[in-house]
DNA sequence: TTAGGGTTAG
C-alpha cells in the first residue's frame, strides 16, 4: 500500500472494508492511523460496515461525528438499529430526523414488522405522506411473514384499487399468503388475476407458484411449472417440490426427486427427513439423518434435529435419543424453544419424565407448546397433580392455556383418577370442544360413573365423534358394563366401520362373560364388512439399534432363535397347564393360530427377541407399537412368570411392568 | 457510492 498514491489508497478502503467484514475493527484502526478518518466517503462506508457486522454502537459513534448528515446516513442508521433489534433507538432517531423520505418511512414499517409489532407497522404505513411500491410490498410482506395471510391479501386488494401496479415482489408475497391459506379457489382467482394483469413471471414468482399449487392441492400443476423451469433449477425449486410431495405423504416421489437433485442443501435434507418423520416413518427419518451426518454434504441444523429428536420420541428410542443429544452438543447446534420442546417430547415419550422436566426447567423462555408438551407427558404417565400444577404455573407466567392444554390436563386427571379436579377444569373452559367432552367421558367412565358419562354425551351441544364413544367403550370394558359397551360399539361401527379395534373390544367383552355366540356374531360382522385386524411393526431398541418385527416375519437376523424361543415357551406353557385356561385370550390364540400358544404376533416376536438378548434378571425395554392388546398382555404375563424376568413394555403412552406374572401398571387394566 | 420489498424445511 505504501507504493500507492493517496487518492487510490482512499478508494481501496471501502472495497476492502466490505470484503473483510468482521475484521473491520483492525481496518478501521488502520484507516484512522493513516489519517483518512475524515474522508466522508470512507467514513460512510465504515459506518455501513459497523451497521452490518456490529457493534452497532460504533456505527452510532461515527454517525454522531458526522458534521453534515444526509438523509441516506439517517436511513442507514435507522435500518441498522432495526436489524440489531434496537427498536427504541430506531424510533428515537426517526423522531429526530430533520427530513424524511419514503425510504425512511418504509424502513420503519419493515422494522416494526420484523419485531412482530404489526399494529405499529400499520400505523406508520397509514401515516406515510407518500407510498412507493416498496412500501406496499413491505407492509404486505410484514403481514405474510407474521402469519396474517388474510390481512396481506386484503392489503394487496387495496393496493391494486389505489392504482399501484404489482411488481414481481408483490406477486411473490401475495402468492405466498395464498399458499398459507391452502385454498384452491383463492389460488385459482389469483392465477386468473395474474394472467389479466400480464404479470411477469420471474424465477421467484415461479417458485412461489410451485409452492402455492402444491399447498392448494394441485401437485400436477406444481410439477408442470417445476418441469418447465428446465435444467437450471436452483435448490429452492427442488426443495419446494420435494416438500410438496412429502406434505401429501407421497414419499416415493419426494425421495425420487431428492436422489436426482444435483446439489442438496440443508433444506433438502431437512425436507426429506421431516417428510419421513411426519408420515410415521420415524426409523427412515433417523436413517436419512445418519446418512446426512456421514456424507457431510450439508451440516445438520436445529431444524434437522427437531425432526430427528421427535422421530426418536415416536419410536421411544431413548438410547438413540441420548446419542442425538450428544451429537447436538458436539456439533454445537444451538437450540431454540422449538428444539427444547422436541426434547421434552422425546423424554416424555420415552418415559423419562425427570429428564423432560429438567429440560423444561432449564429453558430460559418457554411457549405454550413447551407447557403443553410437558403436561401431555404427565398425562400419559398418570401424573395428574403435576399436570394441574403446571397449568397454574403457565397462567402465572402469563401464558394462556389453549385447547391442547385442556386436553392434556383433563387426560392427566383421567389417568390419575382426579375426578373433582377434572370437573373443575372442564367447567372453567370457556367454549369446550368435542375433544374436551371426550376427555370428560373418559374421566367419568374410568372412575366408574358410566351413567353420568352417558348423560354427558346426551347433553353435548355438538354431535359426538368417535373419540367420545371410544372413551365410553373403553370404560365399559374396564367396568364390565356390556350394555353401555354395546351402545358405544354400535355407534362406533357407524362412525368408523373399518376400525377393527372396536370389534375386537366388543368381542373381548362378550368373551369375558362367556357369551361366545355374541363373540361369533361380532366376528361375522367383521368378516362381512371386510374389516381386517390392523397389524403394524413392533420395535425393540437394543444396542443402539432399532429392531422391527411384524406378523409372520422372518427377516430378522435372529429370526430362527426367536421362533425357537417361542416354541420352547409354548411347550413350557402347556406343561404349566395354561392350555386349560378358558379365557378369551387363549381361545383367541388357539383359534387363530391353532398350533402356537404364543403366536407370531409382532408384539410377541419383539418380546421374544428382548428376552433372547437380555441378561437374566435385567429389565427389558420394549418400545413402540407394542399395543398391549389383551392377548399380548396375557402372553407377557405368562412369559414373565415362566422366565422369572422383569419385562417393561411400553404401550403407546403407558408403561407396564411385568414381574413374576404380575403386572403393575399406572393405568386401569 | 451509502437507505426500503422476494421463493423452500420445523
Q: Radius of gyration in whole Å, from Cα?
A: 32 Å
The pLDDT mean sits at 84
**Strand order, biggest sheet?**
2-1-3-4-5-6
Number of strands: 6
**Number of DSSP helices?**
36
Report on this model:
By secondary structure, the protein is mostly helical. 67% of the residues lie in helices and 4% in strands. A six-stranded mixed beta sheet has the order 2-1-3-4-5-6, with helices on both faces. β1 (538-542) and β2 form a beta hairpin. α5 runs parallel beside α7 and α13 (203-215) packs antiparallel against α14. The longest helix is centred in the last third of the chain and has 17 residues, at 559-575. The radius of gyration is 32 Å and the shape is elongated. It starts with 5 loop residues before the first helix and ends with a strand. The chain binds one DNA strand of 10 nucleotides through α3, α5, α7, α9 and α11.
Could you name the key traits of this structure?
669 residues; mainly alpha; six-stranded mixed beta sheet; 36 helices; 4% strand; disordered N terminus; DNA-binding
Element layout with pairings:
Blueprint (H helix, E strand, L loop, with lengths): L5 H15 L3 H11 L5 H14 L2 H10 L5 H13 L3 H10 L5 H13 L3 H10 L5 H13 L3 H13 L6 H14 L2 H13 L6 H13 L3 H10 L6 H13 L3 H10 L5 H13 L3 H14 L6 H14 L2 H13 L6 H13 L3 H10 L5 H13 L3 H13 L6 H14 L2 H10 L5 H13 L3 H10 L6 H13 L3 H14 L4 H13 L3 H13 L9 E5 L2 E5 L9 H17 L8 H10 L8 H12 L5 E5 L6 H14 L2 E5 L4 E5 L2 E4 L4
Parallel strand pairs: 3-4
Antiparallel strand pairs: 1-2, 1-3, 4-5, 5-6
This protein binds one DNA strand of 10 nucleotides through helix 3, helix 5, helix 7, helix 9 and helix 11.
